[in-house]
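Appendix B, Record 12. Input sequence as logged:
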Amino acid sequence: MWALNTKAGGTCLPPIRPAPAARAGDEEAESKASSFGSGDASVPTGDSSDGLNKPPDESKSTEPINISNSNYWRDVRANLVRREQELLVDPSVPAESKASFGEAAHQLPQKWAHPITMPEAGCVLVATEVLDDDSVFERTVILLLRLGSRGTFDGPFGVILNRPLYTKIKNVNPSSFQDQTTPFGDCALFFGGPVDMSMFLVRTKDSSRLKGFEEVIPGICFGFRTELEKAGVLMKSGAIKTEDLRFFVGHAAWDYEQLLSEIRAGYWAVASCSTELISDAVSTDPSCLWTKILQLMGGHYSELSQKPKQDSS
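Logged structural output:
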């Protein structure tokens, strides 16, 4: 199976540097980091040594989640941010009427991104310059699939969107593709993170056709490696195509408080962005995604996108 046969390209290793929370330099962050066991950045920890290999609770994805209301408010919030930016540039811009407020989603550009103060499911975590010498997370964009809770092994998790492995699934484990009915052989592989539980994203225009998969933002669903058979059925039925899928070796995961500590320490910029940005990252080359999102966020984030990598020496 593509998910576990990573020996050809090396196993999914945790970051070599200490946890960002432990590197923050303030006593609060250090005290939090000390409770995370080994202290590896973006790797869930706990009392059990089996915790690193324990998959997220896949049973939660069996029930379809109605996120239409939250998606509407994502668009409304984005429109309010856009209006605020316009007023900063030109205070004479007339305020919107209540009627136009209700049409917020229609006023937004196709691709947008803006900073938010707290992480949420469907947001992106954009690595800042502080992680420039971290071989795993430097200049990454992580799509947060679930925010989780403060419970053990139920923290936030997501996948790195912009780390191609430059190989196809059939090249990683050729013996699995002697049966020509396997539909995923020509799909590209991406590095999703250092935690050994692989996942995939599905792009769709009609999420109602993807029953059993969890929709994280409109048109983007995700599945675990145990749900590959369902994805194969959808491909054979024509509901989805090869270009609608993106496969990730591993994923990134946190203890809930660990992620908050990393954000407070300045290791991640948290952003809400449009479905079109994520959809493009799933279907095309995402190498410019980090720069593109920071530029759309504006202000000092746009300046960050132009900075050369920091030299840790």
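The longest strand covers residues 141-146.
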